[in-house]
Each structure stands twice: as C-alpha cells, then as structure tokens.
C-alpha cells in the first residue's frame, strides 16, 4: 500500500525544493499536493500554465524518488452569499484538476458544496457541480474524489452534520453520479466521528468498490484536530479502523492529512517529525494488511 501525506505545511514553510527531499528521506512513497491557497486572488497557481508548472514540479519529485499520488482542490468551492467568490471558484477548481492531472495524481479531492438549502436541492446543486467538472477530469486522466464534511452551529457552539457527512451519504452521491471512471470517494476518517459516524462503520458502508482514497488523522471527537494517530488526548480506534479497511480489501492509498501535528516543530526538527509520522503510517498499513481476508 502506498504511504503518502499532504504537502500543505512543508511546502508553505520550506518551499517545494526543500520539502520534497524531506518527504522522500522520511520514507514516504508519494505526496498529496495541497492547493488550498487558490481561494486567494494572489495565488500564483490560479494563473500558471498547468502543463509547464505541473511538469516541472513532477520532475522535482521524481528526482527525489517520490511521486504525486493525490491532490486537494481549493476549499471551499462555494460560499453562501458571496457571489463574487462563487463566480471565480469553478474555474479555479478546474485549474487545480489540470495541475493535479499533469502531476500524475490518481485522484483530487473536491469538497461537496454546503448549500444553504439542504435535502434534494442541496443534492441537485452538488450533482450539477460535480458533473460540470467531469470533462476536465476526463481530459487529464484523474478522478474526482468526494469527501465527507461537517458543519458548525455558531450560535450553539458545536459541530453538526452537513453535506455528505455520513458514509451512507457518500455512497448515495457516488452511486447517483454513476461513473467510476471519473468519480471516487475519499473518506476523511477524522470527520466521521465528529458527526457521530464511526470511521469503521463508514468504511463498511462504502465497501471495496466505492472507497478509493483516505484522509488519515486523529481527533478527540470534539474538534477537527488533524493530528497524527495516537497523539495525546486523541480518541479514534485505530484497531477498528485498520480492521475494517482490511476486511473490505481496501485498494487505495494511505494518505495523511495530519499537518497540525507538524505545526509545533521548527525547521531543524521538522524532518524528524515528518519521519515519525511516516513510521506510524507504516505500522497502520501493517495492521490493514494483517486484517485482509485471505
């Protein structure tokens, strides 16, 4: 199983030229290219030539003995009441798909839209949104991955379900889109418990055919901590999670989205922290492999 991690923290603080060798030396097979900054008008990724930029970055990874397996589109793709923002984002999401495709990523996570009206209207908006992105995904040979999300009730101060929050929701969306050559599911393991859906339950609901990617991180069931598994105070059950992944014969990659763990380290100690995360990832992969039905 491929072990990878997002590039967000290291690329932002060290730049790609310094960060890529650190990931490779830490023992990762691949990296997940983070493009969150594209929500800003000043982000250079919004205007780069995808072919030129992606080819150059891909060569840097290959020179270090690593590759891009996954990517993350800018988020959010839509904001309630912000028409100017909403007019810009479809083009930027499409641009991120092009970049990810040139990098050689198999999938790019594109978050569903937390539309102000729920129910069937929210589904219609999201199905239209995802289907509009299908041509560019097909052109660049990359799958669009749907992710489970959560919302926040600011008045009462707690996390609550939102769009595609449960494994069953992701299954419904994937089945409705009905094109496995274009779409897949990225289950964010940490998001599950925040809305009351245990990760292992969501894994089994999605099953072998729907689940194609992961965002791996830990939390305390009260906040979206995005830290390394087994970090102090975190509560997710990694024995149950790895058992479920093995039982469905999960064939995707193991990709960390746990960069909050890295924020506590300075430049001198970052490589050690990155290596520690990689070692934890390898042990969890071993658990998954042992749980596969022979």
Describe this structure in words.
The chain has 294 residues and is α/β, with parallel strands linked by helices. The protein has one domain (3-291): Alpha-Beta Barrel (TIM Barrel). It has helices at residues 8-14, 16-26, 50-64, 83-103, 119-140, 167-177, 189-194, 199-210, 238-247, 270-291; strands spanning 3-6, 30-34, 67-72, 107-109, 143-147, 150-153, 158-161, 183-188, 211-215, 254-256. An eight-stranded parallel beta sheet has the order 9-8-5-4-3-2-1-10. Helix 4 (83-103) links the parallel strand 3 (67-72) and strand 4 (107-109). Helix 3 (50-64) crosses helix 4.
Could you name the key traits of this structure?
TIM Barrel; 8-stranded parallel beta sheet; 15% strand; globular
Gist of the model:
By secondary structure, this protein is of the alpha/beta class.
Q: How much β-strand is present in the residues?
A: 15-25%
Write down the CATH topology. TIM Barrel
Can you tell me the number of structural domains?
A: 1
> Main beta sheet: strand number and arrangement?
8 strands, parallel
Question: What does the oligomeric state look like here?
Answer: single chain
CATH-defined superfamily: Divalent-metal-dependent TIM barrel enzymes
CATH class: Alpha Beta
Number of extended strands: 10
Q: Provide the helix percentage.
A: 40-55%
Assign an overall shape. globular
**C-alpha-based Rg, rounded:** 18 Å
For the termini, the CA-CA separation is 16 Å
Uncertain ranges: none
Q: Supply the helix-strand structural class.
A: alpha/beta
Average predicted confidence as pLDDT: 96
- Put simply, the count of helices is 10
CATH architectural category: Alpha-Beta Barrel
Strand order of the largest sheet: 9-8-5-4-3-2-1-10
């Amino acid at each position: 199983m491929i072990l990878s991690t997002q590039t967000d923290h290291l690329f932002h603080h060290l730049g790609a030229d310094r960060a890529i060798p650190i990931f490779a030396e830490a023992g990762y097979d691949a990296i997940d290219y983070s493009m969150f900054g594209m929500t800003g008008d000043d982000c250079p990724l919004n205007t780069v030539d995808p072919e030129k930029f992606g080819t150059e970055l891909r060569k840097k990874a290959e020179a270090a003995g690593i590759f891009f397996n996954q990517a993350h589109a800018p988020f959010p793709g839509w904001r309630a009441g912000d028409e100017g923002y909403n007019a810009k984002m479809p083009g930027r999401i499409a641009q991120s798909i092009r970049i990810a495709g040139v990098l050689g990523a198999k999938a790019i996570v594109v978050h569903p839209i937390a539309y102000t009206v729920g129910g069937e209207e929210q589904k219609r908006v999201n199905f239209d949104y995802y289907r509009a992105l299908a041509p560019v995904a097909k052109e660049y040979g990359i799958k669009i991955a749907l992710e489970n999300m959560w919302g926040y009730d600011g008045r009462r101060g707690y996390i609550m379900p939102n769009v595609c929050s449960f494994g069953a929701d992701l299954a419904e969306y994937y089945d409705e889109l009905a094109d496995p050559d274009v779409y897949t599911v990225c289950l964010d393991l940490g998001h599950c418990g925040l809305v009351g859906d245990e990760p292992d339950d969501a894994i089994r609901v999605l099953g072998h055919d729907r689940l194609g990617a992961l965002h791996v991180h830990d939390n305390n069931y009260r906040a979206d901590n995005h830290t390394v598994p087994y970090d102090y105070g975190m509560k997710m059950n990694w024995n149950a999670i790895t058992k479920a992944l093995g039982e469905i014969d999960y064939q995707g990659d193991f990709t960390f989205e746990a960069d909050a763990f890295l924020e506590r380290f300075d430049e001198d100690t970052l490589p050690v922290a990155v290596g520690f995360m990689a070692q934890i990832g390898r042990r969890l992969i071993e658990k998954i492999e042992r749980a596969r039905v022979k």
